[in-house]
Specification:
- The protein has helices at about 1-15, 25-45, 50-85, 90-100, 110-150.
- The protein is an all-alpha fold.
Length: about 150
C-alpha cells in the first residue's frame, strides 16, 4: 500500500501539469487524493514510513498544483469564452490590427506582424474554447458511463 501511495503521489504531479488540457486536471486531483488517503492508511498500519511520507508529500504537492492549474485554466477559459460571446474579444483583435495600421510607423513589417499576431490569437482562443468544450463533454460522457456501470444499469 505504501508503494502505491508513493507511485500515485508521483503520478499526480505530471497529471497536475497536464491539467491545462482540460479534464485531465480532475484526474490529477483524484490521483493526489488517493495518494494522500493511501499514505494515511499506511502510516496508521505501521507500514514503511519512508514510502508513506513520500506518497503523502508528493500527493499534497500534486493536489495543490492540480487545483491551482485546473482553477486557473477554468477561469481563463471562462473569460475567453465570455469575451468571444460578448464580442469584446473581436474588439481586442481589431485594436491589435489597428496598431499595425498606425501611420507613425510606416513599416509594412509592423502591419504584417500585427495582423499575424491578431489572427493567431483569435484562432488560438477559438481553438482553446472548442477543445475545452469537447474535452469536458467527453469527460462527462465517460463519467456518466462509469457511474451507470457502478449502478448496475
Amino acid at each position: 500500500m505504501q508503494i502505491a501511495a508513493m507511485i500515485l503521489g508521483i503520478l499526480s504531479i505530471p497529471l497536475a501539469i497536464t491539467g491545462a488540457a482540460g479534464p485531465v486536471g480532475f484526474v490529477g486531483v483524484a490521483v493526489a487524493l488517493a495518494a494522500i488517503v493511501l499514505s494515511a492508511i499506511g502510516m496508521k498500519k505501521g507500514e514503511k514510513k519512508g514510502f508513506c511520507v513520500a506518497g503523502l508529500i508528493t500527493g499534497i504537492f500534486g493536489l495543490i498544483l492540480s487545483l491551482i492549474i485546473t482553477i486557473s485554466c477554468t477561469v481563463c477559459y471562462a473569460k475567453v469564452k465570455k469575451a468571444i460571446d460578448d464580442g469584446t474579444f473581436n474588439e481586442t483583435i481589431d485594436s491589435l490590427k489597428s496598431l499595425s495600421n498606425d501611420n507613425s510607423t510606416n513599416s509594412t513589417d509592423w502591419e504584417a506582424w500585427g495582423n499575424d499576431l491578431a489572427n493567431s490569437i483569435s484562432e488560438g482562443a477559438q481553438g482553446l474554447v472548442n477543445g475545452v468544450e469537447d474535452g469536458i463533454g467527453d469527460f462527462a460522457n465517460a463519467l456518466g458511463d462509469a457511474l451507470k456501470g457502478l449502478g448496475g444499469n
